[in-house]
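User: What would this chain look like folded?
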Amino acid sequence: MWRLHLVGEPAIADKIAPAKHAHARIDDWAAAQNWILARLAENVPAPAPEPV
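Assistant: Here's the prediction, encoded as structure tokens.
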């Protein structure tokens, strides 16, 4: 499962730390949409999570 960390509110985006387990941090809706569509088009599974 691909995990995207999106903070869509510009007023707080720089105050939120990146999610540890997210594959990407994108704070722009259009860029996030492009990232999601690219993952779907690639049809490649997400990398396996790292052991804890």
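The mean pLDDT is 93. If you want, I can go into more detail on any region.
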